[in-house]
Amino acid sequence: MDNKALKALLNDMSLEEKVMQLVQIPGSEYEADAEITGVTRGQANEKVKQLAGSTLGVWGSKRIKKIQKKYMKEHPHHIPLMFMLDVIHGHKTVLPCPLGQGATFDPEAVKAGAAMQAREASADGIHATFSPMADLCRDARWGRIMESTGEDKYLNSCMAAAMVEGYQGDDLKDPDHIAACVKHFAAYGAAEGGRDYNNTELSEHTLREHYLRAYGEAVKKNPAMVMTSFNTINGIPATGNRFLMKKILREEFGFKGVLISDWAAVGEMINHGFAEDQKDAAYKAVMAGVDIDMTSGCYSGNLEELVKSGAVSEKMLDEAVLRVLNMKNDLGLFEDPFRGIDMEEGAKINEESRQLARKTAAQSLVLLENKGKALPLRKEKNAFIGPYANTKRLQSSWAFSGEDENTVTVFEAASSAYDKGSIKYAEGSTMMDQDAVTARGICHVDNWQEENDRLLKEAVETAEWADTVVLCLGEDSTQSGEATSKASLKLPEVQLRLLDEIKKTGKRIVTLIFTGRPLELKEAVELSDALMVCWLPGTEGGNGVMDVLSGKVSPSGRLPVSLPYTVGQEPLHYDMYATGRPKPENGPSEYTSRYLDSENGALYPFGYGLSYTAFEYGEPKLSAERMSAGETLTASVTVRNTGKMKGDTTVQLYIRDVTGSRVRPVRELSGFRKISLEPGEEAEVRFDINEEMLRFWTAEEKWESEPGKFYLWLCDNSRDGRPIEFWLE
Ligand code: BGC
Q1: Which of 650, 645, 727 shows the shortest CA–CA distance to 681?
Q2: Residue located nearest, by CA, to atom 8 of ligand 1
Q3: Which strands form 293-294's sheet, in the order they lie side by side?
């Protein structure tokens, strides 16, 4: 449909019809078993069901075709319904959770993964996904850290942009692609105390300098949608925040697409104490620029009246409706309301997607310790022990359209890789401590103590048989994701007991940690020979893990988040400020900025990860020591594989602006490149540095660079390496 026809359609619609384009209702209104991702209050009446512009949480070729057919027949202008779903890290084939994808430091792989998800979701009738989540996360207590690509604004920017490109492709009309939605705007990851839905207090400087960056970079890729966040920012709910949405999102970022609220967030402005009632909430959201009200019912019940009374102008309403109609048009829905649907089979996992998921899973694993070269596993007796050793629950709580039965467990993968006689399995313990709390309730196991005693005895016997124990521990997948904040980052007691008892057998221990958030791993480090973080690795998780354990692939993942010594350090991130009393590396540290009972920095820093081979980084070089605006400096370093195996390393560029009108972080990631080297091979890695990369939100409240001295590192994590200097004139 061309613009003229679209406008003609708009002009022909009744006020009620227009308002309803801005209403999104849960898929459960159409299909009883649709996924509900929030609290529902009341049901939509028949009229709303007939006219609502979009729905969420329902998928499947047959179901969607049926709903769409009926809907279009009854809709006065036969406008198609838009179907949306949280396809976060997989639809049928599930990739590692976003935090794991962050660990790949490979935006191309992430883009390919998003394209694969789009293909599968589209075959099942989905038009838009609520992804990527570009929220900056510095607090491991916040369970949604699992849905982010980590603590770094630059890494998050690269990953969020790659996801938008992967989902949307070059043309949204292509039925292999779907619309992306950048969320949650803004600063949802800064919830106070790491408690979900909590308030955020951020200066404009921190907001712009750190929290807004990844949304901004993702918006440059023209996502069809942006979603508001649940939190307040400096006292104003994001969903009613004109500064955020009008000034920053629309004016400064130039976002032209559809702005949707988060689930019921319009109505929640009443709970916040920002809106009096549903009508007031609808008014405040609309005036702040929210186009679609996701499930709160505030627009469906009140917007028509607000327009009739003149409180909201019809022009404003029309602009919002036109954005929604445009999105439908961009998706090609007017030509083909059943776009992409595969009526033969619906979405299904194919070999190509499995291979991609396997490769990405292997790339996401971060090797933290490898004492005595415990890995790769030797060809001897290996026991796979622990609640994660043979579970199919390797997907996160945000992968509800992926089926567990398609997942390959670690032990299943080991059984394909090794002779049956050389491996054994024991569950070792329950996943959770008794009566552990998850987002969906309390997890109670009858005869929990007896059951764990039995599992432990069996595990110790299995360990006695083995030469090496691969101990698969971690946090249950229902304990990260939405509404899963935690004040403790410890492994469950029952798993720590298992680790202690296995240690007593004297066997070599390779500990694998499956988790959606950084955990306290000090004890695991001390008791293990090798330690690797596996995140929630998805459908091909077992195979990806075994590819690395067996030595087929050398580990290459890098930490996208700092791993703390203790929860008391949270929020923890490497790009902090120096303070007036920085703690010296050596020498007396009394009256400096430090903890009496903990290190300041991470147990393992951002960017860290080992390989099976060794890399030697040469001295970084600069093409010149001084540059002026308009010029480019080239920084380079030679990296050599000095080990015996092929491997990947991620060369990381960090910069520090030494003095500024506002203080600057001690280091900031400004570039990275993953390279693959054969044994003995070396490569020169170069980065161009220009004035634009040195800009920040100055004391003048401008996005500018300031002349002066800079430090630069080319190294393989955020803690190590020696800086060299350059000057901006
Ligand atoms: C979450 C969003 C999600 C939405 C729709 C909300 O509870 O915060 O991230 O996209 O539900 O399922």
Answers
A1: 645
A2: 262
A3: 128-129, 82-85, 54-56, 23-26, 293-294
Tokens of 533: 């973080």
- Binned at pLDDT 50, 70 and 90, residue 343 comes out as confident
Distance from C-alpha of 574 to C-alpha of 458, rounded to nearest angstrom:
42
* pTM for the whole structure: 0.98
d(CA 537, CA 423): 22
Q: Is the Cβ atom of 296 under 6 angstroms away from ligand 1? A: no
**How much is the mean pLDDT over the chain?**
97
3-state secondary structure of 614: coil
Q: Which amino acid is at 278?
A: Q
User: Is 468 a pocket residue for ligand 1 (Cβ < 6 Å)?
Assistant: no
**pLDDT, tens only, 150-161:** 999 999 999 999
Determine the Cα–Cα distance for residues 233 and 245; give it in Å rounded to an integer.
12
Residue-wise over 678-707: b if at least 16 C-beta within 10 A, else e?
Answer: eeeeebebbbebebebbebbbeeeeeebbe
Say how far apart CA 200 and CA 187 lie, in whole Å. Answer: 7
Structural Rg of the chain based on CA atoms: 26
Using CA of residue 501, residue 503, residue 507, residue 512, what is the dihedral sign? positive
Question: Among residues 291, 55, 86, which one has the least CA distance to residue 180?
Answer: 86
Ligand 1 lined by 262 (C-beta under 6 Å):
yes
Query: Rounded to the nearest 5 degrees, what angle is found at the Cα of 136, between the Cα atoms of 130 and 139?
Result: 115
Nearest atom of ligand 1 to the alpha carbon of 184: 9
* CA nearest neighbour of 386 among 422, 411, 415: 411
Q: How far apart are CA 49 and CA 25, in angstroms?
A: 8
> How far is 120 from 349, CA to CA, in rounded Å?
8
Tokens representing 670 are: 């400004």
470 in Cβ contact with 381 (< 8 Å): no
Say if CB 292 and CB 54 are below 8 A apart: yes
Report the 10 Å Cβ neighbour count for 301: 18
Choose the catalytic residue: 196, 262, 648, 657: 262
Buried b (16+ CB within 10 A) or exposed e, 251-275: eebebebbbbbbbbbbbbbbebebb
Cα(501)–Cα(388) distance, integer angstroms: 17
How distant, in Å, are the alpha carbons of 146, 237, 487, 576 from that of 101?
A: 10, 30, 25, 24
d(CA 227, ligand 1 centre) in Å? 9
Q: Is 183 near ligand 1, meaning CB less than 6 Å away? A: yes
The answer to whether 618 touches 638, Cβ cutoff 8 Å, is yes
User: C-alpha distances in angstroms, 716 versus 151, 443, 650?
Assistant: 17, 41, 6
Residues whose CB falls within 8 Å of the CB of residue 273, separated by 6 or more in sequence, listed in order: none
Confidence (pLDDT) at 61: 95
Measured from the Cα of 35, ligand 1's closest atom is 12
The pLDDT tens digits for 95-119 are: 999 999 999 999 999 999 999 999 9
Return the ligand 1 atom nearest residue 133 CA: 9
Instruction: Report how far ligand 1's centroid is from the alpha carbon of 579 (Å).
Output: 37
Closest C-alpha to 620, from 693, 720, 537: 720
> What confidence category does residue 693 fall into, taking pLDDT thresholds of 50, 70 and 90?
very high
144 in ligand 1 pocket by Cβ < 6 Å?
Answer: no
Rounded distance, CA 596 to CA 589, Å? 10
CA 511, 677, 518 angle in degrees (round to 5)?
Answer: 30
- Is 176 among the catalytic positions? no
The verdict on the CB of residue 520 being under 6 Å from ligand 1 is no
Q: Which tokens hold the place of 421?
A: 């006689």
Coil vs helix vs strand at 279? helix
> Do 182 and 134 form a contact (C-beta atoms < 8 A)?
yes
Tell me, in angstroms, the distance from the centre of ligand 1 to residue 77's CA.
Answer: 30
Which residues are bridge partners to 703 per DSSP? 697
Look up residue 466 and give its two tokens. Answer: 């083995």
